[in-house]
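Structure request: Cytosine deaminase, Trichosporon asahii var. asahii.
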Amino acid sequence: MAVTKEQYPEFMKMAAIVHLPTGKVLAKGHNQRVQLNSNIRHGEMDALENLGRVNEGVFRECAMFTTLSPCIMFPLVVLAENENFVGGEDLLRSKGVEVVNLQNPEITKMMSDWIAGPVGQKVWNEDIGEVTA
Ligand SMILES: [Zn+2]
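Returned structure:
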């Protein structure tokens, strides 16, 4: 999907989640930190909340449009382990965020057991944005 300046008035006065193959706006949001007394309802997070739960793989076909550059909210992120999943650690580091991995084997086992269990098998790929093979 080509994004043109002419689309800015529609998409860029808020955060919007757009389905790339069709151009359909799936959800919109705007900063509501003050209105909702919330630390997380930045525009893009509000759009995600308004979208609700979606099936695995949906986000791979979507783009987030925002008025402003997304916020880096913390200078330090500490994670218990990353053997089960590696997310955006390198991206965070590239933006100056310190990422500390505690490599805790108890948590690695707890998560791998949960992923292999009945609930994890149903929702893990959805959680990490992967599509079941
Ligand atoms: Zn923000």
